[in-house]
Hints:
The chain is built from ten helices and no strands.
Amino acid sequence: MKIYKSLPDLKKTRHMNLWHKALKSGWSPEEIEWESPGTPRLEASCDQVARILSPILVGEQAGLYSITSMIGILGKDLDVESQMYLTTMAVDEARHTELFTRFYRRIDREPLPIRRMPNGYLFQSSIISDDPLEWITGTLVSELSAKIMQEDLRALGLDPVLDEMCRRILIDETRHIAFNHIFVEDRFYQNVLSADGDASALATRLREKLESVLEKVGPVMGDIHKDCVDIGLEPDKIHAQVCEESRRRLDNSIASGLERASRVETVASTEPT
């Protein structure tokens, strides 16, 4: 890891804006009224809800582990702005892990163990990478899976505490997805302007990474398919939405980076020599 011998310039404005937004939005799981009365519908669905939330909890725990590792890896590039933002993302994942732990206690259930949900662990393992761009491409699928599932759970209105918990988590997830876009766009911009960059090859590699992670989503949804249907969710629709939105968002980030670099190259070519 490189050691900073001078002040970082902090010139990545959007990274810094997102960092400050995250700092201002801090909150504690203790703010939720965990002892609020449940609903008859929740009481009749505790087993299903516990199983459905299991892969989301695994994702939060895996995110916490991988983010702390990635902060060190980004030190090699002296990408201080990204490191700073990821510290808040690590706090978010830790907070979400506490939220889910408290909720499981509320419904007096436990998440599925690895022997009953191996696909969830295989899904998270497919995301792991020492390459920041490959890692963040994989996390896009995990973030969107959690986001879409919790949006649909919240729409069911099973429990006021679950609704409030999902509402707060979704605010965090929105920031994570925004950072994902900014990070990928910025790296493609830098790649195009680099003398040895190959944006086409990089785009192909990230799309292949995305597809390798998306392949694992179906089996995860298969593990909880019946539970989803039993409480009123549409697992096939959720699966399709995760795949479509993941591909669309990655393509948009790549296109934004290429367009940004193209504008710089156009300006440079029109400047008088």
